[in-house]
Amino acid sequence: MNVFLEKPNKILPKILIGIFVFVFFIGTLNLFQNQFKNFFYSITQPFQKILLRAGDNSSNFLGAFLKINNLAGENEEIKKRNQELLEEIITLQQVKVENQALKEVVSGGLEKEFKLILTEAIGIDNKQDFILINRGSDDGILEDMPVINSQKVLFGKVFKVYKNFSKVMLVSSKNSVLDVKIQKDDTISPIIYGAVRGEGNLSAILDLVSLEREIKNNDILITSSLEGTFPKGLLIGKITEPNQNDLKPFQTAKIELFFNLKQSDKLFIISDYKIE
């Protein structure tokens, strides 16, 4: 019985001491609240700066990310619009070039002589002296149709026709032979005929000219239409070096062809020429 009375007597002072310490601690916190806060902030300041900067950076990163997304969208829209404008400019330029080419044809009277189909060279085969044009069977193109420019310079004839493009054999091809007439400055000289034979590498020679005829430098060569493939009067080239040898039955000459592949953007196919 005495044992149970002694235990409360021992516990009660401990409880009282604990209450006193708690009250003292609370009072001390209230009394030195600012000091404790200051101490706590001083210790945790580096960590708070890191967290603050991380928060700012996250905020800035998020803002920048959203801004970048907006700019990317705007740039994509601007890029798309620029492409559309570029396509419009290219189309207008092509129309302008085509109109200029047609204007030259009209001014030269070609549209009165022939029915023409506008085309352009899109590829070159220098090894075989062929060019590729962007017109084919869908455009009414047939083999052997002559191909010229707006100045009536003969480039060659259609060799192979596909659906949307055709292969043109140039007059410089080794497989090309056409009858020509030597155009003289005067009208009293007798007509001189010959043949232009392709030698490849965009070059050709004049052959089969009678030894009795006089030819000289700068004489102009035009189509004679004797072979029936080309209409008469198309420009071929000019003589640069006559070569007469009494031991040969005909005289020959080196020539300079008039066609220029660097200026072959706009060409014309004669679609209505028929052998007379």
Q: What's the β-strand tally?
A: 13
CATH topology of the domain at 116-270: Thrombin, subunit H
Structural classification: alpha+beta
CATH architecture verdict of the domain at 116-270: Beta Barrel
State the fourth-level CATH superfamily of the domain at 116-270.
Rod shape-determining protein MreC, domain 2
Question: Mind telling me the CATH class of the domain at 116-270?
Answer: Mainly Beta
Order of helices and strands: HHHEEEEEEEEEEEEE
* Helix content class: 25-40%
Strand line-up of the largest beta sheet: 1-13-4-5-6-3-2
Distance, first to last CA: 151 Å
Number of helices: 3
Quick recap:
The protein has 276 residues and is α+β, with helices and mostly antiparallel strands. Helix content is 40%, strand content 28%.
What does it look like?
- The structure is a single chain.
- The chain has 276 residues and is of the alpha+beta class.
- It has a domain at 116-270: Rod shape-determining protein MreC, domain 2 (Thrombin, subunit H), CATH 2.40.10.350.
- 40% of the residues lie in helices and 28% in strands.
- It has helices spanning 2-31, 33-108, 110-113; strands at 116-119, 121-125, 130-133, 146-148, 154-161, 166-170, 177-183, 192-200, 203-210, 220-223, 235-243, 250-257, 267-270.
- The strands form 2 sheets. It has a 7-stranded antiparallel sheet with strand order 1-13-4-5-6-3-2, with helices on one face. It has a 6-stranded antiparallel beta barrel with strand order 7-8-9-12-11-10.
- The longest helix has 76 residues, at 33-108.
- It is rod-shaped and about 155 Å long.
- Residues 1-5 and 55-59 have low confidence and may be disordered.
